[in-house]
User: Fold this.
Amino acid sequence: MDNDFYYNFIQPDGAIADFVENLGTFHNQSDHPKEVVIIPDGRIDLFFSQSPSEPFHVTLLGLETYPEQRYIHPHTLAFIVSFKPLAAEYILRTSIADLLNTGKELPTDFWNFKTEDLSNFDLCCKKAVQKIKELLPRKMDERKRHLFELIYESKGEMSVKELSEKAGWSSRQINRYFTRQLGLSLKAYSTILRFRASLEHIAQGKLFPELNYTDQNHFIKEVKKFSGVAPKELSKNKNDRFVLLSVLKGK
Assistant:
């Protein structure tokens, strides 16, 4: 564990669980940049952050399809809302297709957060949950809700055909929705979720496929594609570079 890098992630209450996966905070308490590797996890992240070198700012990050090395400035403090894909349409009320592997700055008064809020994680959680509850849709397409339930429950292992049949929504319409709203196909998204589910096993030191991979080579190839390293090196997680893996190991 990197003692200079503090993080904490919690799950939200059930009322917003269809749209939010977790709420979190991190703080680079050192005088040096913190190297991290951002890996695809199927989530849309809303960041409220500040550091001595960067004033308070709000950033919306789209979905990732490949790993990216980044550096967190010294003494950066951040609060993060990690959304599930349905939130793009129903909470954020925008397409994030153009944010694939990138992000955009939002107005600094977004959701009425302020610099001083970041030092109080409980307050940030309370403000975010209250705002999201205000934005909850009165009505939503149940096919979409059911589709994402199936995708998450199957950890990305259910075929597009089966998902289409069980959700009562044609695969063509589903892929059109995914491409328009998220910037990638359902199959591509499911592959990312399967990789993410395998991280839970890698965090436990299981370096062989536990999910529906054709063989060990296929598993290694996919882990390298999404993390940049082989399962063995990923499991070592040198210097806690892979924060998502650190969080899973800490569970």
Observations:
- The longest strand covers residues 20-28.
- The two ends are 14 Å apart (CA to CA).
